[in-house]
Task: structure prediction
Amino acid sequence: MANKVLIIGSHGMLGQDLVRVFEKDMNWEVFGYDRDQIDIASEESLRGKIEEVGPDAVINASGYNAVDKCESDEIEFELAKKINGYGPGLLAKICADMEIPVVHYVSDYIFDGEKGEYTETDKPSPISNYGRSKLLGEEEIQKNTDKFYLIRTSKLFGKPGKSEMAKKSFFDTMIGMAKDNKVLKIVDEEKSCFTYTPDLALETKKMIEEKIPFGIYHVVNVGACTWYEAALELFRLAKMDVEVIPVSSSEFPRPAKRPRSSVLLNTKLKPLRNYKEALAEYLKENYSI
Ligand SMILES: NC(=O)c1ccc[n+]([C@@H]2O[C@H](COP(=O)([O-])OP(=O)(O)OC[C@H]3O[C@@H](n4cnc5c(N)ncnc54)[C@H](OP(=O)(O)O)[C@@H]3O)[C@@H](O)[C@H]2O)c1
Result:
């Protein structure tokens, strides 16, 4: 009989690829739900669906990702804490009661960026409300269950989520901007790793299937870079004639502080491929480049 996986946030950028990756494998039966069917912030909603399905594993790909909005607005910060922090904690409690593993994704923004590169055991110290809400999720999950995979990742790219509000990845945004502008100013700071959502989804499936020890993992594509360096690579691969000018982050002030450099070091798993190879695949599949 097939194993059952329940995926929360199944319409998001990562959620859609998780559904795709598990559905391709006959050994898994997939139950994907987005916010209209399961609210991560409601214990009643979570418990109802999870008990009805009786999954062998639960993956939470939902998230509050409006980094700047929750910096300047207290009500938004409360919402971020519910979706990224307390909700995942409730989920962990339910999964512990049912003795099943839970997977949850965290961000490099839980680090302040001063050290530059971070291993799985480095101490988090967020500098934004978004980072604080994601760290709260780590704490709440660990408080409520021992059977957890906390996967820290950064700068996701893949097909945008299905909802109208879905945030596009950096690469899709750049391609859109390059259609109307032949010169682009891009921030040459905030060094970190890009992560291709199909690669992250496959790695998540492998971690569950191989029953590797529970704990904190860093899953990113190889090849740390700044936004500027990534834009250069994008336009080179896409053969687009765009002049890219490196600028400081002070040229584009935003409410929330970003870590200066938050490279997630993966010391526990086999490394994923380089982001350049993954980006070439994304461009071929989605833009026929
Ligand atoms: N994107 C990145 O660069 C990045 C970096 C590091 C870590 N992460 C983490 O990776 C995970 C996946 O990110 P992503 O970029 O794939 O996110 P995403 O595209 O924004 O998708 C999140 C999904 O969750 C849904 N959702 C929102 N509120 C919900 C609620 N209360 N209950 C249930 N579902 C809800 C969203 O629906 P609506 O669209 O209708 O709101 C959306 O479909 C998140 O935990 C995120 O924090 C992302």
Q: What stands out?
A: The mean pLDDT is 97. Residues 8-9, 11-15, 34-35, 38-41, 61-63, 65, 83, 105, 107, 153-156, 161, 163, 165-167 surround NAP (CB under 6 Å). The two ends are 41 Å apart (CA to CA). The domain at 3-159+193-222+262-272 is CATH 3.40.50.720 (Rossmann fold).
